């Protein structure tokens, strides 16, 4: 059988930075255990946050990612779009660099992430609010 499953996961408001959300995604999809092979697509319905996969063990990685992306895309720059505050346009640029979606393979009832990989919500606004993720799971159960 090749089922499809789709649901929306609402993530709580986070401070600006890189936040591991792997466990929240797994909790939202208990049916994942029944999938032998397939994929999970995660789509973030926002333009000032993004998703990425990176090391999930060291908190220093999260801090260094935030520091590095802020150096690449500074707040103090003559952006034309500035109506929503100084962190808004940089957040849009950062979101475009990382992207709003990820696809992760599914193998024997689990996400086929590497040993040190985790799924991150990259919050690029100082006050981003709650974030909506559309989770689409497709594959073969059995």
What is the strand and helix layout of this fold?
Blueprint: E1 4-11, E2 17-20, H1 22-28, E3 35-44, E4 49-55, H2 59-72, H3 88-98, E5 101-107, E6 110-111, E7 117-123, E8 131-141
Antiparallel strand pairs: 1-8, 2-7, 3-5, 3-8, 4-7, 5-6
Describe this structure in words.
The protein is α+β, with helices and mostly antiparallel strands and 142 residues long. It has a single domain, classed as Sandwich (Jelly Rolls). Helices cover 23% and strands 39% of the residues. It has helices at residues 22-28, 59-72, 88-98; strands at residues 4-11, 17-20, 35-44, 49-55, 101-107, 110-111, 117-123, 131-141. The strands form two sheets. The chain has a five-stranded antiparallel beta sheet with strand order 1-8-3-5-6, covered by helices on one side. It is elongated, with a radius of gyration of 16 Å. It starts with a strand and ends with a strand.
Question: What percentage of amino acids are in beta strands?
Answer: 35-45%
CATH class: Mainly Beta
Mean pLDDT: 96
The outline comes out as elongated
Measure the end-to-end span. Answer: 8 Å
Return the CATH architecture.
Sandwich
Order of helices and strands: EEHEEHHEEEE
Structural class by SSE content: alpha+beta
Rg over CA atoms, rounded to whole Å, is: 16 Å
Helix percent reads: 10-25%
Supply database-style keywords.
alpha+beta; Jelly Rolls; 3-stranded antiparallel beta sheet
